[in-house]
Amino acid sequence: MSIINDALKKTEESIQRNLLKEIPVPGKKPKLKTCLIYIAIFVVGIFLSSLLFKIINRKISSFRLSPLHKTAAAPEVKSETEQALPSATPIILPQEQEKPKKSFVLNGIFFSDNSGYALVNNQIIKENDLIDGAKVEKITANTVEINNEGEIITLSTSR
Question: What pLDDT, in 10s, does the model give residues 78-130?
């Protein structure tokens, strides 16, 4: 019987020691190693989230850019002798210039939650959106109507 009592006392003492280790002491600070692990996890999380947002933003930006955009050419620089000579070409005032017609290319139409969306000039649009200064009037299953300065342009799918 004494062997059993001794074993019980030892287990009770070890349980008491373990409980005392787990109870935090009010004046005791957390271990430095634990704090460093939490800080490292926080820093890595911020880094990964910023990297993820940069990748997503880059994909969205590349999707919105139209391949039809052209860069403006640099103006010609004339020498002093060319500037002194009168030119024979007429000067066209801004009021006299014709506005170039805008071209719209319908790439696709899709519907989601009873709302119609279209892919025009590689941009996702819906009704009442503006694209290159023109308002999207109506999107149907096969056509998109665009109001360009009072002129209704109807784009249709190739089907």
Answer: 555 555 555 556 655 555 555 556 788 888 888 887 788 898 888 899 898 99
Cβ pair 139, 126 in contact under 8 A: yes
3-state helix, strand, coil in the chain (%, to 5): 35, 25, 40
Q: What pTM does this model have?
A: 0.37
Of 32, 47, 64, the residue at which a domain comes to its end is 64
Q: Assess if residue 7 is contained within a domain.
A: yes
Residue 146 lies in a domain: yes
In the numeric block, the tokens 């784009």 are attached to: 155
Q: In which domain, by residue range, is 8 found?
A: 2-64
SS3 82: helix
DSSP states along 8-38: HHHHHHHHHHHHHHHSPPTTPPPPHHHHHHH
Residue 136 lies in a domain: yes
